[in-house]
C-alpha cells in the first residue's frame, strides 16, 4: 500500500521526473525537478497557496513515482517524452495529440520519392515538418508537382523503366516520365535535390543552380531540357514574389511564436521565416490552461513543439521570455549549434511578433464563433429530435437526378451532429432500368446502400473487417428524401423488405421550389420558417440536391467527351489523352486548325486531318 508520508520522506535530492497517478493507475501529471524532494513535497504543502487547478489535481493523486536522472537537462528530455506518451490530463497539451504530418523525401533510395507521412523514422530519408494539419502539406506538394513534375505513380525504378506506356500524368504535363528511359539516374536525383532545397526555402541558391543548369543545357544544344529548366525558374520566382518579405536586410531563418489566451484555452501562432520570407504558418490550440501565465504556457508549448522538429532555426522570436532557462540549452544541444530564444523589445522584430500575436487573437475569435455555431446547431438538433420524437445525430439524405428520364443517378449525403460528413457521401449510377422512374431509382439506391451495410456487418462479426474501415456503417438514425409521399412510400417499402426499421421523412418544397418542411406517412410536419430546424433541413436538402446534380453533370460530361472522340477513326487512347492535355476541351479541339492539331505530341498529318474532317464535315 502506498504510504504518502513515508514516500515523501524518502524522495531523493536529485534531478529527475515525477509521475502522478490517480486511483485507477492513470497518469494525470508529469513534471521535472532540479531537486525531486523539494518539488514533489510542494504539492502536498500550503494547499491554500495552490491554484484551483493544482488543488483539483492533488485531490486526485493516489500515488506517485519518480525517475532519477543525472542532470536537469536529461529530466527535461524525459519529461517531454513521457508527456507525449501518457498525455496526462493536467499537463498542457497541444490539441489532438496525433503524430503530426511530415513531408518525406526518400533520398536514401536510388530513385527518391516524395509523399506525406506521420511516421518519423531514422531511415536516412529527409523529413520536413512537423505541420499542424495536412492542408499546408497538400498545398506544398501540389506546388512541387506543378514545378518539378515528380512521378506519383506506383511504378518501381529502375526495374519499371521502359515497361509499358507512360500514364496520363505525362500527357497532361504533370510528370517528367522517368519510366520512358529518357532521364538518367543522376538527372532524376538532381530534381529531388532541388525539391528539398525548395521546401527548405533556399530559393535564391536553388535559382542560381537552375540558371547555371539552363545555360549548360543550352550550350550543349539540349533545348528541351533548357526549356523545362526555364519554366521551373519562372515558377519558383513567381512563388517567391508572392511571399511577404519581412526582413530584407537580414535574409535569415527564424520562427516567430506568439500566444493569445481565452478562458481555459490558449491559441499559439507560429510563423516560419526562411531566407527573410514567410514560407508557412501554423496555429495550435492548448487546452486545460486555467490559472497558468503566458510564459508558463509558452514554455510548455516550445518544449512539445520542438521535441520532434526536424529543422530548428537558429533564432526563435517569442512574445514572452520562457520561465525555464534550460530550454534554450536543450535546443542547442539537440541541434548541435547555438539556438537563440529572443524576446524583442523594439524595432522591426517587435512589430513582427505583434503581427503574429494578432493572428493568434484572430484564431481565438474564430474559435469563439465556431463554439457559438456549434451551440446553435445543437439547439436545432435538440428541437428536431423533440419534433420528430427520434434521435437525429446521424441523418442520411437522398436525391435522384436525371435529364428527360435518362442517365439516372442517386446521391447520398450524411449529416453528423448537424454538420456534413463528406467522407461518408456516396453516389450511385442507376443500373437496373432506363427511363424516368424516381421511385424505382430510389428503391435501387437504398437497396444497394443497405446491402453493402449488411454485408459489412457480417464481415465485422466474422472478424474480417475493422469497423473503422467500413464504408457503409453505421446505419443512420433517420432518412430524409428529397421528395413527397410517393418517395417516402417507395423508401419505406424497400426498407421493410430488407427488415430495417429506420424512420423516413420527405423534404417537401413549395410552389416556388423552396424548402417547406418535412412529411412522413402520417402527413406533413409543420416547421416555422424562422427556426433553426427549418434552416438545418434547408441546408440538408440543398446539399443532397447539389451533390446529385454535380455527379450527374460530371458523368454526362465524361461520357460526352469519351463518345465524341472515340468516334474518330485513327484516334486511339494515347492520342485522345494528348489532345485533351494540350487543348483542354472538346470544344477547343473542334475549333483547332489542322496545323494546331498536327503540333500536338503524337499526332501526324493524317491524324490531324481525320480530327478536322470529323468536326467540320459531319
TrEMBL record:
A GO BP annotation: SOS response
Domain GIY-YIG: 13-92
SUPFAM superfamilies given in the database record: C-terminal UvrC-binding domain of UvrB, GIY-YIG endonuclease, RuvA domain 2-like
Residue ranges of every copy of the UVR domain listed in the record: 204-239
Entries under InterPro entries matching the protein: GIY-YIG_endonuc, GIY-YIG_endonuc_sf, GIY-YIG_UvrC_Cho, RuvA_2-like, UVR_dom, UVR_dom_sf, UvrABC_protein_C, UvrC
Functional description taken from the UniProt entry: The UvrABC repair system catalyzes the recognition and processing of DNA lesions. UvrC both incises the 5' and 3' sides of the lesion. The N-terminal half is responsible for the 3' incision and the C-terminal half is responsible for the 5' incision.
Assembly: Interacts with UvrB in an incision complex.
Protein name: UvrABC system protein C
Organism, as annotated: Candidatus Avimonoglobus intestinipullorum
Name of the gene: uvrC
Amino acid at each position: 500500500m502506498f504510504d504518502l508520508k513515508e514516500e515523501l520522506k524518502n524522495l531523493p535530492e536529485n534531478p529527475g521526473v515525477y509521475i502522478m497517478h490517480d486511483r485507477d493507475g492513470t497518469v494525470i501529471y508529469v513534471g521535472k525537478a532540479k531537486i525531486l524532494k523539494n518539488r514533489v513535497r510542494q504539492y502536498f504543502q500550503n494547499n491554500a497557496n495552490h491554484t484551483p487547478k493544482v488543488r483539483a489535481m492533488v485531490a486526485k493523486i493516489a500515488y506517485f513515482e519518480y525517475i532519477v536522472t543525472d542532470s536537469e537537462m536529461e529530466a527535461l528530455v524525459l519529461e517531454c517524452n513521457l508527456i507525449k506518451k501518457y498525455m496526462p490530463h493536467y499537463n498542457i497539451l497541444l490539441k489532438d495529440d496525433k503524430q503530426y504530418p511530415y513531408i518525406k523525401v526518400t533520398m536514401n533510395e536510388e530513385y527518391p520519392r516524395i509523399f506525406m507521412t506521420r511516421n518519423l523514422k531514422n531511415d536516412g530519408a529527409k523529413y520536413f515538418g512537423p505541420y499542424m494539419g495536412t492542408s499546408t502539406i497538400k498545398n506544398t506538394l501540389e506546388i512541387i508537382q506543378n514545378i518539378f513534375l515528380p512521378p506519383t505513380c506506383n511504378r518501381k525504378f529502375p526495374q519499371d523503366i521502359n515497361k509499358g506506356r507512360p500514364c496520363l500524368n505525362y500527357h497532361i504535363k504533370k510528370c517528367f516520365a522517368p519510366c520512358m528511359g529518357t532521364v538518367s539516374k543522376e538527372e532524376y536525383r538532381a530534381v529531388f535535390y532541388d525539391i528539398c532545397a525548395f521546401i527548405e526555402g533556399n530559393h535564391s541558391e536553388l535559382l542560381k543552380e537552375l540558371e547555371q543548369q539552363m545555360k549548360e543545357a543550352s550550350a550543349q544544344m539540349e533545348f528541351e531540357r533548357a526549356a523545362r529548366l526555364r519554366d521551373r525558374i519562372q515558377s519558383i520566382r513567381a512563388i517567391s514574389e508572392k511571399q511577404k518579405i519581412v526582413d530584407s536586410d537580414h535574409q535569415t531563418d527564424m520562427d516567430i511564436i506568439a500566444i493569445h489566451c481565452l478562458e481555459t484555452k490558449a491559441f499559439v501562432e507560429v510563423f516560419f521565416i526562411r531566407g527573410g520570407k514567410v514560407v508557412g504558418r501554423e496555429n495550435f490550440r492548448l487546452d486545460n490552461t486555467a490559472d497558468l501565465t503566458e510564459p508558463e504556457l509558452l514554455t510548455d508549448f516550445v518544449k512539445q513543439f520542438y521535441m520532434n522538429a526536424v529543422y530548428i532555426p537558429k533564432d526563435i522570436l517569442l512574445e514572452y521570455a520562457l520561465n525555464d532557462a534550460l530550454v534554450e540549452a536543450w535546443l542547442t544541444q539537440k541541434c548541435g549549434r547555438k539556438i537563440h530564444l529572443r524576446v524583442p523589445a523594439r524595432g522591426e522584430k517587435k512589430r513582427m511578433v505583434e503581427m503574429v500575436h494578432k493572428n493568434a487573437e484572430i484564431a481565438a475569435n474564430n474559435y469563439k464563433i465556431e463554439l457559438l455555431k456549434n451551440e446553435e446547431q445543437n439547439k436545432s438538433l435538440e428541437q428536431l429530435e423533440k419534433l420528430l420524437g427520434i434521435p437525429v445525430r446521424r441523418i442520411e439524405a437522398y436525391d435522384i437526378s436525371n435529364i428527360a428520364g435518362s442517365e439516372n443517378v442517386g446521391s447520398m449525403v450524411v449529416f453528423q451532429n448537424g454538420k456534413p460528413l463528406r467522407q461518408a457521401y456516396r453516389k450511385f449510377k442507376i443500373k437496373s432500368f432506363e427511363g424516368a422512374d424516381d421511385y424505382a431509382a430510389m428503391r435501387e439506391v437504398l437497396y444497394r446502400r443497405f446491402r453493402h451495410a449488411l454485408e459489412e456487418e457480417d464481415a465485422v462479426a466474422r472478424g474480417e473487417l475493422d469497423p473503422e474501415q467500413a464504408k457503409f456503417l453505421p446505419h443512420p438514425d433517420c432518412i430524409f428524401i428529397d421528395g413527397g409521399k410517393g418517395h417516402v412510400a417507395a423508401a419505406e417499402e424497400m426498407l421493410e423488405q430488407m427488415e430495417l426499421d429506420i424512420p423516413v421523412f420527405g423534404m417537401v418544397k413549395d410552389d416556388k421550389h423552396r424548402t417547406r418542411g418535412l412529411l412522413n406517412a402520417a402527413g406533413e410536419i409543420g416547421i416555422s420558417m424562422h427556426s433553426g430546424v427549418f434552416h438545418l433541413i434547408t441546408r440538408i436538402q440543398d446539399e443532397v440536391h447539389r451533390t446529385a446534380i454535380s455527379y450527374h453533370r460530371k458523368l454526362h460530361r465524361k461520357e460526352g467527351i469519351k463518345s465524341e472522340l472515340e468516334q474518330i477513326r485513327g484516334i486511339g487512347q494515347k492520342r485522345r489523352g494528348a489532345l485533351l492535355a494540350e487543348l483542354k476541351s472538346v470544344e477547343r479541339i473542334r475549333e483547332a486548325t489542322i496545323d494546331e492539331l498536327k503540333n500536338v505530341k503524337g499526332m501526324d498529318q493524317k491524324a490531324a486531318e481525320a480530327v478536322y474532317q470529323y468536326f467540320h464535315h459531319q
